[in-house]
Specification:
Blueprint: H1 4-25, H2 43-46, H3 54-57, H4 63-67, H5 72-88, H6 94-102
Length: 107
């Protein structure tokens, strides 16, 4: 059985991967030079996402977490947290994610 620490680490990886996918989709490669050196999972900090593009930006981001057994409730919470980060431009914060996870019944 997975421990809370395991689930926190796995959830963190899933969110960062979703942010990375979104960052890679936010603008064409031809425009990426202006953010050279910024990791894809941090692009949204410099260029917050257009809320109307969120579905496109996170498409497929939750497929692997679902395959490895993340519950629908957990995926929904991680998706909401990720979308909030993308629109707000606030940097990922482990403590914020832990607060999100603490609201779920499995913690």
């Amino acid at each position: 059985m997975a421990t809370a620490l395991d689930m926190t680490a796995a959830s963190e990886l899933a969110v960062l991967r979703a942010l990375e996918r979104a960052g890679n989709r936010m603008f064409p490669r031809s425009e990426r030079a202006r953010l050279k050196g910024v990791p894809p999972w941090e692009i949204y900090i410099h260029l917050p996402a257009d809320p109307s593009r969120l579905d496109d930006l996170v498409t497929g981001a939750w497929d692997l977490p679902a395959v490895v057994g993340f519950s629908e409730d957990l995926i929904s919470a991680l998706d909401s947290y990720t979308r909030t980060l993308l629109v707000s431009g606030h940097a990922f914060d482990r403590a914020d994610l832990q607060r999100v996870l603490a609201r779920l019944s499995w913690c």
